[in-house]
Write a structure and sequence with these properties.
Layout (H helix, E strand, L loop, with lengths): L5 H6 L6 E3 L2 E3 L6 E6 L4 E7 L3 H15 L4 H4 L2 H17 L1 H12 L3 H22 L7 E2 L8 E9 L2 E5 L5 H14 L3 E5 L6 H13 L6 E3 L4 H9 L5 E5 L2 H11 L5 E5 L5 E4 L5 H13 L11 E5 L3 H14 L18 H16 L3 E4 L15 E4 L6 H4 L6 E7 L2 H9 L6 E5 L3 H10 L4 E4 L18 E2 L12 E9 L2
Parallel strand pairs: 7-8, 7-10, 8-9, 10-11, 12-13, 12-17, 13-16, 15-16, 17-18
Antiparallel strand pairs: 1-2, 3-4, 5-6, 6-20, 11-19, 14-15
Helix pairs in contact: 4-6, 4-8, 5-6, 6-7, 11-12
Length: about 500
Amino acid sequence: MSALLPAVRSFLSAPKQLLIDGEWVDAKDGRTFATINPSTEEVLVQVAQASSVDVDRAVVAARTAFEAGSPWSKMTPRDRSHLLWRIGDLIEAHADEFAQLEALDNGKRVEAARDGDIATAAELFRYFAGWATKMEGTSIPMSVPGREFHAYTRREPVGVVAGIVPWNFPLLMACFKIVPAITAGNTVILKPAEQTPLTALRLGQLLLDAGLPAGVVNVLPGFGDTGAALVDHPGVDKVAFTGSTEVGKKIAAGASANLKKVSLELGGKAPNIIFDDADIDAAIAGAVLGGYFNEGQCCVNGSRLYVQRGVFDQVVEGVAAAARAIKVGDGFDPASNMGPLVSQEQFDKVLGYIRGAVADGATLNAGSADAAGERGFFVAPTLITGVTEQMAVQTDEIFGPVVTAIPFDTEDEVVAAANNTVYGLAAGVWTNNIGRAHRVGARLRAGTVWLNTWHADDVTLPRGGFKQSGWGRELGSFGLDDYTELKTVIAELR
């Protein structure tokens, strides 16, 4: 591909290894796997596949780096702050390289990766750089007659953190785990998704170049058995996972063996509610962005569209027209508006849901039940009407460019329908009635609720879910809570 930067060509010119204790090493058993370009279905490079033996090696390295007396433990909060800021600058300096690697491995458009994923990753390091020096405790008065005490709390790092991340935002999700963990002084073993290991590996080298001590961040590409070995390992103190609810339940069960800390950002099936008094043009644009962003592979996408009956046909027509206008193509093609799905498995899954809905009597207002290209994992943006609340296309997280639309009449009716799901990650409301917006927003059981917008976000804001969408919150000041232990210290003054 002539558009590739020399740095990207160089990176792909040799098999990729594991990062353990600051060194690039082969898997102990020599196993590798191929990572695939979803636009062309061609092999990009072979990647080392970590086994439980490699997990043991990484845990020892991370534990050694964490313990008292190590170079990492001796770094002051100010040292960590400066290091985090330096890493953010390096990510920005290599933004074009990261964006091309992300587009090759994940399929998303180069511009979307650079201006969205990579830019936010750099900002994450800079934002948390400010928090490294602000991990404060509190002094608490005690009431014990005749005796005097000094009681205070302190925030301390948890220890060794296993970060297991998905393939839809590979670099960004890796940073979601690494950044708060090292801000608080933990060490990390990162397990990237087997579909998209490349930017995590490139980040590993960049962290070393920035001066992060050996063993503080280790990178272990692999499959489910690699992640399971991390979850089961007694030397891991915390697991931070983003991915499906099904896998999240397995992680929670596995972590119960030694009660290690767990934070989970899991699946979603977000309702997007449009009332008849909304700015309809803005609501249609919001529904398109909310439904088809990132090829539909985003857990907070508004995949369940509820439209008040009086404007239902108008909204469906508008969303369908916009969906049909989206050009699906290679992430390196400047004319493309949407790239492919990440893998053959995901491609087959999404088309299976669309075909199932048609077989059940639903109507395709936009999109197709067939592939959108001769090669590559391309699926056209799809809008489906005539669905019921019981259909799989309505209840399941599809994770593709598929939106269902259902009419409603009353506020109570739509709130009940919106909340009738095992998920609770995100939701949205479109109305020009400010009272209704906040009233309905308060009734929706979701971790993030957008009012007259969608995908508005910032690294300062906490994110996470209700119900089976997960445990804990990431980002913002709240994002440090799951990476620290709160210790109480009591001293008697004599």
